[in-house]
Amino acid sequence: MIFVKLQPYRQMSMKGHSYHKLNPKFFGPFRIMKKVGHVAYQLDPLHNAKIYHTIHVSQLKKHVGTTVAVPHLPVTLSTCGYIVLEPEAILEERVISKHGRLVTQALVKWFNCSTKDSNWIDLHVLQQQFSQFSP
Asked: What positions does the domain Tf2-1-like SH3-like occupy (predicted)?
């Protein structure tokens, strides 16, 4: 049994969360199905988590002991193991000055997240990244 390390600080949508150092770094435990090459392992697939099942050894940690008190994987993960957030609703809009230009921002509530995890995103960036989303 092993734990998988996620890197939410690399995910653009995870920036801005307070106390990111207190967030869990490892998720699991997972069962190893087989070794793939010299530096990767294939994990037991989960039906509800969208995670790429072949993971590099640097992203794994051995499970020690019999009890597990670790959070479960988020429902939606990218193929690289990064957390993927999808917008659910726009709570507010505001206009701010950025580099001498007026920019419209939206306070976005993310799907499967509480309202305290909502954050401000430039409206044009939101439309580019989530073109299928219509508030």
From this structure: 1-63
Name the helix (H) or strand (E) containing 127. helix 123-129
Rounded to an integer, what distance in angstroms lies between the CA atom of residue 40 and that of residue 71?
Answer: 23
pLDDT digits (tens, 9 = 90+) for 103-127: 999 999 887 777 888 889 999 888 8
Q: What is the pLDDT of residues 18-67, one digit of tens each?
A: 556 666 677 777 888 889 999 998 888 665 555 677 878 888 888 777 76
Distance CA 20, CA 51 (A): 22
Instruction: Give the start-to-end residue ranges of the domains of the chain.
Output: 2-62, 87-129
Q: Output Rg (C-alpha) for the chain, integer angstroms.
A: 18
Q: Which two tokens stand for residue 96?
A: 């701010």
- State whether residue 44 is helix, strand or coil: coil
Q: 111: left (phi > 0), else alpha (psi -120 to 50), else beta?
A: beta
Tokens 């995890």 label which residue?
117
Is the pLDDT at 73 greater than 60, yes or no? no
